[in-house]
Amino acid sequence: MLSAYQQALRDRLLAAPVVPAHAPWRPVFESTYGVPVGGLLGIGFASHPESGRDLVMVVSNDGHGLFDAVTGEKIARDRDPAPEDGTPDAVADLTCPGLGPIAGSRVRIAGLFGGGLHTTTDDGWTLESVAPDWPHHRVLLSADGGLPHSGPYGEQWWHIFHSTYSELRAFGFSLSGRTIAVATSSDVSLWTRHPGHGNSSDIRH
User: Fold this and answer.
1) Is the pLDDT of residue 67 over 80?
2) Of residues 73, 32, 30, 33, the one with CA closest to residue 53
3) Could you tell me if 167 and 185 are in contact, meaning their C-beta atoms sit under 8 angstroms apart?
4) If DSSP codes are grouped into helix, strand and coil, which group holds residue 85?
5) CB-CB contact of 45 with 107 (8 Å)
6) What is the number of H-type helices and E-type strands within the chain?
7) How far is CA 116 from CA 10, 160, 194, 204, in A?
8) Sorting pLDDT into bands at 50, 70 and 90, what band is 204?
9) CA dihedral 144, 136, 5, 205 (to 10 degrees)
């Protein structure tokens, strides 16, 4: 049995529709659900060694891929990684070898086998996963510190992703705080913002 408080919170979450992420965040891909990645196992972040831009590494049953987190361009692909490096559970620290511009490094992968990504940024943004209609997970973006979200919906918290058809694998911010990634067993979605813009304290009611 849920308490009256718990039921009210659950009802509030259920009533919150999916909306675009609040400015300055913008989607990287045109599709609502990003780009399809069949058999996705996990994702991880890295930085381009020359430009410093965020990169997203995707590990799936079909190999490894590397995306530019600003443009969404797939910049590297390895369809046949070595068996000892094909999935992050092969090593104790859940890493896979980098590819393309980050070859020679290792990237921590969060997803099916464990691990996690950052859920807060230095300037006050928060991501969290809730499942008021379990097993379907919702990803919430907020500027109020997270649950229980005392303010009105759409002012300081937003329901930006609803996984109704695939299993949620991982979600979080890049180390720079400039990229949001949400990965399910079948796709990956990205949001980006410009460096130095979008401090959540700047949001006005």
Assistant:
1) yes
2) 73
3) yes
4) helix
5) yes
6) 1, 15
7) 25, 19, 24, 31
8) very low
9) 30
Query: How far apart are alpha carbons 133 and 147 in whole angstroms?
Result: 17
Structure tokens at 7: 């039921």
Asked whether the beta carbons of 56 and 101 are under 8 A apart, the reply is no
CB 146 within 8 A of CB 130: no
The amino acid at 19 = V
- Torsion sign over Cα 157, 53, 114, 65: positive
Q: What's the confidence (pLDDT) of residue 202?
A: 54
CB-based burial of residue 73 (10 Å sphere; 0-12 exposed, 13-18 middle, 19+ buried)?
exposed
Q: Structure pTM?
A: 0.93
Q: Name the DSSP letter for residue 13.
A: H
3-state secondary structure 37-50: CCCEEEEEEEECCC
